[in-house]
Amino acid sequence: MAEDLVLDTTIRDWVLIPLSVVMVLIGILRYFVSKLIRTFQNPDGKIVKEGQVVIRARNLRSSADFIPPKSFRARRTYYSNEENGILHVPKGQAPNPQAQMFSDPNMAMDMMKKNLSMIIPQTLTFAFVNFFFSGFVAAKIPFPLTQRFRSMLQNGIDLSTVDVSYVSSRSWYFLNLFGLRGLFSLILGEENAMDDTQRMMQMGGFGFDPSKSLGAEKDSLDIVQHDWVLPKFEQRAEAVLRKLAK
Amino acid sequence: MVTKLDETELKRLESQVEHGGGGAWEYLCLVRKLKIRRSDKVLKHGLLILNDPKKRSSIGDEEWTLYEQVAIAAMDCNSLDTARDCINVLSKKFPESKRVGRLEAMLLEAKGCWEEAENAYSSLLEDNPLDQVVHKRKVAMAKAEGDLLKAIECLSKYLKVFMADNDAWRELAEIYVSLQMYKQAAFCYEELILAQPTVPVYHLAYADVLYTLGGLENIQTAKKYYAATIDFTGGKNTRALYGVCLCTAAIGQLAKGRNKDDKEGELHTLAAKVLEKDYKYRAPDKLPLLTSTLKTLKLSS
User: Do A52 and B164 count as a contact with CB atoms less than 8 A apart?
Assistant: First the structure.
């Protein structure tokens, strides 16, 4: 398109700014609501222990060369022998997260709360934005962009002739949704800001199975070659001292 | 971890606060964040804030955190009445709080009522078996009572779950050394070396334990770890230098009569030289002592 579209200043006053303000307010509201319904749950002892075992086994793997061969062998047996090594997970005994979820009503409840604080307000705001602000070209970014950005910036406007640097109101909503994290961390304090991208990642991480990481750690521990580095240190120390003695 | 930047900031704030330059609250926050022990100063300046209604209200909700901090500092300074007052305020504000319950138990401990404190800690652990602070308090209490075996028992129980806690391993190692259970101590130090392989302190302590255990193989290993300490510290650790000399002498004695196929390095002669040089520079009047010692070890050149 050759000529620029002229955006009405009332669009700025009645779409662009209100939309951003609404998004900020909803974000703050949601933070307080989720704070209200959040339950503090004690971490499960077994999971904590498994996490610690993995850390310790990883330490052993990465710096195995610093302890004498005898100590290393003893530790490896302790971790990964087939009978009662602490990294050894007997077959068929690994807990199935799906089954665990159904047996533990608290877990389902927790999931629901998480969803409640995330999906419901999101649908509501989306419906709200669609209802009041749909179809506007709300802003223009001051640099040109390629066609690829059309789906990101002009969601809701199906015109292929409009220059890509114009931003539709719905896209402005999405930009706000994902981009307000910095502002929230200013308003609510550093650690309180939780943006939606992070939440989604948490959702994806659900069903993480610690016994799998135990198994993986055991496998990599089994193939570690022990090569004691300490004898080399005698030469290195000699070099250091020779320099000092001069 | 306390970084260099934190340290300078802390020193700056400390001197500022000491000379009445304000910033007491920032200082207290930093002390809390870095988890360092400045109980006397925390008590003094924390009380100044808490006793002044205007200052107290200016920190808002953090008031209660300050009460807790001051209570713990007061117990550390043995002003138990102050601690009592702080805890009373807190328990009025947060009845049935576990965190206040922990403070109550600590107060009992500070008073020396071991049994009551023990019971209080046990009931706290029943509610939350993963409370690290309570576990550590129990160990500290057993140590204060002088019952080191019980301390070891508590600490092992704690380490069974939190086995990546380096400080706990170190504590356990030191307790084992004080009980002369060197094999167990060696295991703990190995664990520490695994976790932080470049910290010379652990190598040095491990070498000490191995040397104390004795036996040709152990002493040869000990010498290697002393060498590692020398390498990590750039030869500035006098204890490691002595360690190398002693190990070499011990190996020479133990291996006497056996075939000496492994060639002797010149590590010990170098160590002796560096020791002599160091003594000449820093403590010339002790030099004769050193030379006679080295002579008995047959290391003097």
Answer: yes
**Has residue B105 been placed in a domain?**
no
Residue A25 CB burial class (10 angstroms; 0-12, 13-18, ≥19)? exposed
Within a domain: B127: no
φ, ψ at B237 (rounded to 5°):
-95, 110
8 Å CB contact between B36 and B2: yes
Question: Using a CB-CB distance cutoff of 8 angstroms, which residues of chain A are in contact with residue B162?
Answer: 48, 52
Do the beta carbons of residue B111 and residue B92 sit within 8 Å? Answer: no
Dihedral of CA atoms A221, A223, A228, A229 in degrees, nearest 10, equals -90
**Confidence (pLDDT) at B58:** 84
Torsion over CA: A231, A232, A238, A240 (sign): negative
B181 within some domain: no
Full residue range of the structural domain in which residue B207 is found: 194-256+264-301
How many angstroms separate the CA atoms of B87 and B56, rounded? 16
The residue among B233, B270, B276 with the most chain A CBs within 10 A of its CB, best to mutate, is B270
Q: Which of B57, B76, B95 is the C-terminal boundary of a domain?
A: B95
Question: Residue A66 is encoded by which pair of tokens?
Answer: 């610093």
- How many angstroms separate the CA atoms of B265 and B248, rounded? 10
Q: Which of B79, B95, B111 is the last residue of a domain?
A: B95
Contact B230 A240 (CB under 8 A): yes
Q: How remote is the C-alpha of A130 from its chain's centroid?
A: 28
Q: How many domains does chain B have?
A: 2
The domain ranges of chain A are 9-245
**Beta-strand pair A137-140/A166-168:** antiparallel
The tens-digit pLDDT sequence of chain A (246 residues) is 446 778 888 888 888 898 889 888 888 888 888 777 766 666 677 778 888 888 888 889 888 889 999 999 998 888 888 777 777 776 655 555 566 656 666 767 777 777 776 788 788 888 888 888 888 888 888 888 888 888 888 887 878 788 888 888 888 888 888 888 788 888 876 555 454 545 555 444 444 556 677 888 888 888 888 888 888 888 888 888 888 877
A contacts of B187 (beta carbons < 8 Å): 71
List Cα–Cα distances, A192 to A20, A115, A125, A183, B47, in angstroms. 20, 18, 21, 11, 30
User: Which residues in chain B have their CB less than 8 angstroms from residue A49's CB?
Assistant: 160-161, 163
Give me the residue label for tokens 């877990």: A107
Say whether residue B163 is in contact with chain A using an 8 A CB cutoff.
yes
Q: Which amino acid is at B58?
A: S
Q: Are the C-beta atoms of residues A239 and A79 closer than 8 Å to each other? A: no
Q: Check which CATH number belongs to the domain holding B22 and give it.
A: 1.25.40
Distance from CA of B284 to the nearest CA of A (A): 17
- Bridge partners (DSSP) of residue A139 are A167
Using alpha carbons only, what angle is made at residue A88 by residues B136 and B186, rounded to the nearest 5 degrees? 45
As a whole number of angstroms, the distance between CA B115 and CA B136 comes to 16
